[in-house]
Design a protein that fits this description.
With about 475 residues, the chain is of the alpha+beta class. The chain has 15 helices and 22 strands. The structure holds S-adenosylmethionine.
């Protein structure tokens, strides 16, 4: 047995011995001794020249690659610009499930129920149309911050971040076209990548995760449209969290199971479960067979004919309580956007947010029914004296900012100094006064203010690069 596999809990190994053949157990332990592969997924809205050497495609996700040797991501300005997301490859199998079964050509409403830190949310956001809506929900408050940061870097306004338990969405009866529940789990699939998960593991953890997952799954049918897609996933191997959920879903008689087409070279194992005479398939990624960490994913479609009408209503009085920016100030906001007429603006505690016009009613409805942590793109604050915008970092890195805003391209060293909030070698931008954007390889890093003899660095302190580069 390898050294690393020796650290695996005995109870885990003995259970796995019941799940896998003797040959597989040996291969599993050998693979456990290898390093977890490193992979990243590019942002289709921010194409850039990413120069990692020795990359190979992740076969089940068009926008992703493995990297032979882990680079120092923290020293790459492109990651700050939102050009890519470092994501474990197996998790990107959601891409296949959505490509094969979600109506991605339509404008849809998607709920990512367990969303932080945002790997699956950014993937979903890459696939849906710009008129679609992504509700990224994270109930654990402190985990909502990295989720918001990652969606902000991705740059699109059609997202809203909520912080609710799954029962809260049941009031939005049959509202969503797609629900993804990447449930909290015992994390056995992360044992290799993150040894801390080994220490946290116990049979009791499996029991408690299984209870939470059961509850999450129970609530799904109420908020999913008939004909809607439900994807359940975990990053663990335990049958209590995977096979039992398949049984639960079948037992509810609310769903029809879906198959996902696979290429045999991907090394994905099909897990079949039968309940009440119906068979359903789960797809398992395991170290010794698939190039990635552990994952379990299954897909279902909700039975029934989709209703033509929304099945719930929110009182107009409540909807009117959501304050939208007045016309004159909205016009000032639109000047900062490439397609300003496609947006309306919401104000909260003096901060102004751009919200796609076609989603205003949806955003309002979510404001009054859910706990909302973030919405659309933060534009900034209005300077009450001159009625001009003090633009926010979110606007700078968004995909909706006007292309005529002054900008300057910087070299690597200046990009790093900018991200550290230090002085750059450039001291001015020819012909520019006031707000301007700093770009690296064509992508925006953030704002500077051009004064007569210096540049003021407006990179947000809380995001600044602290590594010694
Ligand atoms: C596996 S992680 C999600 C990873 C995320 N989907 C991604 O790809 O980046 C599960 C998430 O569920 C959240 N969670 C914990 N308890 C929950 C509950 N009762 N209902 C919904 N989500 C919960 C956790 O805080 C955690 O962020």
């Amino acid at each position: 047995m390898s050294n690393r596999a020796e650290k695996l809990p005995k109870k885990f190994i003995s259970r796995l011995e019941g799940q896998l053949s003797e040959e597989d157990i040996i291969a599993f332990k050998e693979a456990f001794d290898e390093f977890a592969p490193v992979s990243y997924r590019t942002n289709p809205f921010k194409p850039a020249e990413i120069d990692f050497s020795d990359i190979t495609p992740v076969p089940w996700c068009d926008e992703a690659h493995y990297i032979a040797k882990r680079p120092s991501f923290a020293k790459d300005p492109l990651i700050f610009a939102g050009a890519y997301y470092v994501q474990e490859a197996s998790s990107m199998f959601l891409w296949q499930a959505l490509k094969q079964h979600a109506p991605l050509e339509k404008d849809i409403k998607v709920l990512d129920l367990c969303a932080a830190p945002g790997g699956k949310s950014t993937l979903i956001n890459s696939l849906i149309t710009e008129k679609s809506l992504l509700v990224a929900n994270e109930v654990v408050d402190k985990r909502a911050t990295p989720l918001i940061d990652n969606l902000v870097r991705w740059g699109n306004p059609n997202t809203i971040v909520t912080a609710n338990y799954s029962d809260s969405f049941t009031q939005l009866r049959e509202y969503f076209d797609v629900i993804v529940a990447d449930a909290p789990c015992s994390g056995e699939g992360m044992f290799r990548k993150d040894p801390k998960t080994i220490d946290a593991w116990s049979p009791m953890l499996i029991n408690s995760c299984s209870d939470v997952q059961k509850e999450i799954v129970d609530y799904i049918p109420k908020s999913l449209k008939a004909g809607g897609l439900f994807i359940y996933s975990t990053c663990t191997f335990s049958p209590q969290e995977n096979e039992e959920r398949l049984e639960q879903i079948l037992d509810s008689e609310e769903f029809e199971p879906l198959e996902i087409d696979l290429d045999p070279s991907w090394g994905i194992t099909k897990i079949e479960v039968e309940k009440n005479g119906v068979k359903a398939t789960g797809y398992r990624f395991i170290f010794h067979k698939t190039t990635g960490e552990g994952l379990f994913l299954t897909a279902f479609i909700k039975k029934g004919e989709p209703s033509r009408h929304q099945k719930f209503s929110v009182s107009p009085k409540k909807m009117k309580q959501v304050f939208m920016l007045r016309k004159r100030e909205s016009e000032e906001m639109r000047k900062w956007l490439e397609n300003g007429n496609d947006f309306d603006f919401y104000e909260e505690e003096d901060e102004i947010y751009a919200i796609p016009k076609n989603l205003v009613q949806d955003f309002k409805m979510l404001f009054v029914t859910q706990t909302v942590r973030h919405q659309g793109i933060k534009m900034g604050r209005l300077n009450k004296k001159n009625n001009q915008l003090i633009p926010d970092h979110e606007l700078a890195v968004s995909n909706i900012i006007a292309s005529n805003i002054p900008s300057t391209e910087v070299e690597y060293r200046d990009a790093i100094d900018y991200l550290k909030k230090q002085d750059m070698s450039i001291k001015t931008i020819q012909g520019v006064k006031g707000w301007a954007l700093i770009k690296f390889k064509g992508l925006v890093l953030g704002w500077v203010k051009v004064l007569p003899n210096r540049l003021n660095n407006y990179y947000p302190t809380e995001h600044r690069l602290v590594k010694n580069v």
